[in-house]
Design goal:
- This is Sigma-70 family RNA polymerase sigma factor.
- It holds the Pfam family Lcl_C.
- With about 625 residues, the chain is α+β, with helices and mostly antiparallel strands.
- It folds into four domains: about 140 residues, no CATH class; about 60 residues, no CATH class; about 130 residues, Mannose-Binding Protein A, Chain A; about 100 residues, no CATH class.
- Helix content is about 35%, strand content about 10%.
- It is built from 18 helices and 17 strands.
- The strands form six sheets. Strands 3-4-5-11 form a four-stranded antiparallel β-sheet, with no helix packed on it. Strands 7-8-9 form a three-stranded antiparallel β-sheet.
- Helix 1 packs across helix 2, helix 2 crosses helix 7 and helix 7 packs antiparallel against helix 8.
- The relative contact order is 0.09.
């Protein structure tokens, strides 16, 4: 009898078959470990990230609607978590006393465990020299070259089209080829000119030294040898085995999945005697994923305890089960509504709407937008209470825009580049050229403005940018491009929306919106979507409508892709489908804005049919 297909395993696991869950873990843990290991080579938390990925996979597995696409979906989950880890690591401040000990990089593990030699070894060593942003692409492409993934699965894991995936891979390949030349030249060690170039180098691979050494190699006949006899890495890696998962990680995860069905209460005490200490951690991870309507793993150092109990210290990289019923979203600090202050906490996250979303007055929707000119070069949004820089004068690349806002001294300082959801709040889709209230924000250019939110799949190169010609949101802002920067000041609260689910509805108290939890499975026209919501009765409640494009944007989790939403709160969300809104496009009033949960981007030209998520 052959091995069961992914489809059979998913369907069995979704119906409660623990042996199917264990089979999925055994089949996909090596793949996940190899993707994470190569993408985060040299980082101390590879095993932690692998376990977090497995948590997310088993947590969201019940909502996977296309079992045949398990492999591609797993890749997308892993890449989103890698992107989140890299953002968290970049933003973290670690003292020297707290810094982790150096760890063996994944390339050394690959060479050792797979016994690589010759040009195969050269390729593995060259991987050390890639830019950090290219490593996730390398990790997927390596598995494609080895025959573990298809190009379509690589593209889906990256959250892009196969054509764009080819461009990304070609760019990474060019850098890998350059790195192979660097590795070869350094290994030869017979060029006096090269020895002069690397004087002062600490011996650690780094992009700046790759560029310096490669520049010398290109112009040096002594170093630039062997290129003609170099075998393409695709041929070298064809059929190359996966790096085996460490025994401790395999044992922990396997032990956890085998007993997780008995630990749905959220504790690992019933199995502590039967698993190793490492397995206890994984038990908590996977058992926690099985708990209905539980919050996702919080990253805050303190976790709220039941009434009357003191808070419990928690590791930021471990989920802590709690006896509460809201469904939370991505791993960010717990959320508390707040009002802006001149000096917001440096650690506050502003990834979620912590306020009702303002709507244009002519739209006839709640929370009509209004602003107050504070007379000091700033304007206050009377709905969100965010304070904005009134006029802007700077077009800057992404990182310079963030620095500009952080150092802005206007009206007492305390500014930052707005997040995706903060910048969404001041768009006025009833206007164009520019799509903003020009009395509140005079002189606004009808061009692109930066948000501070990087794209989850390629956070080192792309970020969310907004075209104020008509209000389009895009995840394809190349960070080296110069766009406008409008700074904002807010405390903004932080972290996950405190979603509450009941009677097929999801309520977000911070935005005052209640959503239909799962809409119709079939796509329909915009007119049919409007009629569907108007006639909807859910939990005895009427008064449903299509959301505005700004309202539906509050449900987007921009740390995820495909779908970019909390699937525990909103199961069955189509990963790459348009969702209708009630907002007409000012440039073409006959068209409706729609949002695509593949990433959360918006458009009004591309949707002819779409899905429905009603709101009241």
């Amino acid at each position: 009898m052959g091995h069961p297909s992914d489809r059979m395993l998913v369907l069995s696991a979704q119906s409660g078959d623990e042996s199917a869950r264990e089979a999925i873990l055994r089949r996909y843990l090596p793949l996940v470990y190899n993707i994470v290991g190569r993408a985060l080579s040299g980082q101390p938390d590879v095993d932690d990230v692998v376990q977090e990925c497995m948590l997310r996979i088993f947590r969201d597995l019940p909502d996977l609607r296309e079992p045949d696409r398990l492999r591609a979906w797993v890749g997308a989950v892993v890449m989103a978590r890698i992107g989140a880890y890299r953002r968290e690591s970049r933003d973290a401040t670690v003292s020297l006393a707290e810094a982790p000990e150096p760890v063996t990089d994944f390339e050394s593990e690959t060479i050792l465990r797979l016994d690589l030699s010759g040009q195969r070894r050269e390729v593995a060593e060259a991987a050390r020299w890639l830019d950090p942003g290219e490593r996730p692409v390398l990790s997927l492409w390596w598995l494609e070259a080895a025959g573990e993934l298809s190009r379509a699965e690589v593209a889906e894991a990256l959250g892009i089209t196969p054509a764009y995936a080819a461009v990304r891979i070609q760019r990474m390949r060019a850098q890998l080829d350059t790195s192979r030349s660097v590795v070869t030249a350094l290994a030869a060690g017979d060029c006096p000119g090269l020895r002069a170039v690397v004087r002062g180098w600490d011996g650690q691979p780094a992009p700046v030294w790759r560029k310096r050494i490669a520049r010398h190699v290109r112009d040096c006949p002594l170093c630039d040898h062997g290129v003609d006899s170099r075998i393409s890495p695709e041929k070298l890696l064809l059929g190359c085995a996966l790096v085996p998962v460490p025994a401790g990680l395999t044992g922990a995860a396997t032990g956890a999945i085998s007993v997780s069905g008995h630990t749905r209460s959220g504790t690992a005490k019933t199995v502590a005697a039967s698993v190793t200490a490492a397995a206890v951690v994984a038990v908590a991870v996977i058992a926690y994923a099985n708990m209905p309507d539980q919050p996702r793993e919080p990253a805050a150092q303190t976790v709220a305890a039941p009434t009357g109990e003191a808070p419990t210290a928690a590791s930021p990289s471990r989920p802590v089960p709690a006896a509460i019923t809201p469904v939370a979203s991505s791993p960010t600090p717990s959320r508390t509504p707040a009002r802006p202050s001149p000096t917001p906490p440096a650690t506050a996250s502003r990834d979620w709407a912590n306020w009702p979303m303002p709507n244009p007055g002519k739209a006839g929707l709640p929370h009509r937008a209004s602003y107050t000119d504070l007379g000091d070069g700033t304007v206050r949004d009377n709905v969100t209470r965010l304070v904005w820089q009134r006029t802007v004068t700077e077009e800057l690349p992404y990182r310079e825009a963030k620095t500009y806002c952080a150092s802005l001294k206007l009206a007492g300082g305390g500014w930052h580049l707005p997040t995706r959801i903060e910048l969404t709040s001041i768009i006025d889709h009833s206007r164009r050229q520019p799509a903003i209230d020009v009395r509140a924000f005079p002189g606004t250019s009808p061009r692109f403005f930066w948000s501070s939110t990087p794209w989850a799949v390629d956070e080192s190169r792309l970020a969310w940018a907004f075209n104020f010609y008509e209000g389009l949101t895009s995840n394809a802002g190349v960070q080296t491009n110069a766009y406008w920067a409008r700074c904002v000041r807010s405390e903004g609260g932080s972290g996950d929306p405190a979603y509450r689910t009941a009677d097929g509805q999801v309520t977000d108290p911070a935005t005052s919106l209640t959503w239909e939890r799962t809409g119709p499975a079939a796509a329909m026209s915009a007119a049919a979507a409007t009629s569907y919501c108007a006639g909807l009765t859910l939990g005895g409640q009427t008064g449903w409508r299509l959301p505005s494009v700004k309202e539906i944007a509050t449900t987007v989790d921009d740390s995820r892709v495909h779908p970019a939403i909390n699937v525990r709160a909103f199961p069955g969300t189509v990963g790459n489908g348009w969702y209708w809104t009630s907002t007409n496009a000012a440039p073409e009033p006959g068209r409706r804005w729609a949002l695509n949960y593949d990433d959360g981007f918006t458009d009004y030209r591309r949707a002819t049919t779409g899905f429905v998520r009603c709101v009241r």
